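Q: My labmate handed me this sequence with no annotations at all. I'd like to see what the chain might look like in three dimensions before we decide whether it's worth expressing. Could you predict it?
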Amino acid sequence: MNNPKIELLNVQKTRNGTVILKEINLKFISGKRHILLGPSGAGKTTLLRLLNRMDDPSSGEIFYDENNIKNIPILELRRKVGMVFQIPVTFEGTVKDNLMVPYRLGVISGNADENELEKALELSGLQTEYLGRKASELSVGEKQRLNVARALLNKPEVLLLDEPTSALDSESANKLLHSVKELNEVLGLTVIMVTHQLENARLFGGKIIHIANGTVVREGEEEGFFLNSLSSNMS
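A: Here is what I predict for the chain of 235 residues:
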């Protein structure tokens, strides 16, 4: 089935008189992996931020499960559409303390279940004994996995990733991409990842959406996308 989880119709974003995105028409298919690929400044992150209303379009409409996202309460939308940022965010204390943040802020209702915390860690590629470790002592790659685990506690239907491997070495980046691919395959998460690195796009696979100068240049599945000429210098 190719039902769109999120659909953008004629979306445009203007900031301080500058057009960042123009005439964006896209469908992100439920349960699939998607890559927003393009050079820095192309508008990829701006587009990503529109999908959970960290920003709103200047014109056009965005639908989530055929409902206009402006009609969905923001907290509810952000529970459904989790986001992992380019630079991992950690707080003082242990890994467990960091996983408890959404509960303390009331983003997740009820009491934390340690089994849920352990499951989230394992799904993100970290072992359960990490719960007692200080977050400040983790590597950058481990901190990024912790951010993925924290996002998973909301049981999102969509996971947004903004250049999640940009601060990681090659080995850590590959491990993170593998973990997220498994989340897509095991949990059926709809995943949308921003990157400017062709190698990440090849490793991650799925539908590739090439964006340049605020417009969609080209779309295609990974298998055929690289068969056609695409600039090797995306950065």
